[in-house]
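User: Second chain of the day. Same drill as before.
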Amino acid sequence: MKKLGKKFLIAMLLFGLMGQIAWVVENMYFNVFIYKIFNASANDISTMVMASAVVAALTTIVMGALSDKLGKRKAFISYGYIIWGISIISFAYIKSIALTIVMDCVMTFFGSSANDAAYNAWLTDMGDKDNRGIIEGLNSMMPLLSILIVFGGFMSFNLNEITAWKTIYYIIGIVTTTIGIIGLFIIEDKKDLKKTDAKIFETIAYSFKIGTIKNNKKLYLVLLAFAVFGISIQIFMPYLIIYYEQSLKLSNYVLIMAPAIIVAAVVTVLYGKVFDLKGFDYAIRYPLLMLMIGYLLLYFFKNTALVFIGSLFMMSGYLCGMSVFGAEIRSLIPENKAGQFQGVRIICQVFIPGVIGPFVGAGILKNAERILNNDGTYSFLPNANIFMAALVVILVLVIFLFVILRKKENEDR
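Assistant: Same format as last time:
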């Protein structure tokens, strides 16, 4: 980390954290927003998540390749965050579910250009075999810290009131834009990153070519495993806060989750070193085990203490798993091709999970209990079956990892 310098560390922490705060608001609270303000159904929520996933994938494919072609990350990151923040502010004026879904896609375009494509390519550029695990550990801690910040910040707002949401969107939007401006002064592109003469369509298509796949078999197997991991997470994540607050009646769910998030964040940072020392095959085992324990506890128990323990295991497994997968993917990406591989990465990390996971979750909750609201409308109540469905997917992943990937390892010997 020393050779990367203080500017890199500050930029990574600022842009990594703020990017994840913006994504938490989108991935966890836009669902709450349309549920509380517009009485959205499970299908409405799954539609929004899926539409955003499609836009994120397409955007990252194109913009990641474009950043490679132009040999620039800084401009995409900084200006992207500036416009991303402005798009978040626009949600203060939205008055329907349909418009929320449309603007979510617009916001996702700018967020994916800046964060998914350029920022992630920049992290790949700057790391090496000696520090990639630590970098990914820190980077993977950001979602947990962002959840903690957002949960804590939202405690002072009455989320049943539209005025509270307007204030939230202004705060998040202004801070995101401000950090984008700061990036113009502190982000530095990798010195040997240069503009290429390849045509943009060739650059976009590179990571999807049969020859590229054949030459990087382990990378694509890990990406496929990452997609299965993400499907498990997306089965329950869009409904998690609603489940805590409405189904379990945990009005103080923030106080329950905050300690779990803090512990999980520490575990995630420390676990990054395990990858550096032991490698992917060893390091991925324990996050999956923690995730399964968390799912079982959340499925079988409603007691506050056991929900807390289950949430701790679930969050730790989720973030450590993200850290291990992320570090392995970055290690396997060919040098100076980071931008071109962000598209296929986002397909496996966001698109496939974002389309399949919420669809499965909505199917599981199709006949969920419904409650009558004060205005005469009905809302659904998520149930614990989403955690059992997520567990089944993780079991499929375990079989894949310890059969298919080990077979590939034996072939390489």
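The first strand starts at residue 370 and ends at 372.

User: Great, on to the next one.
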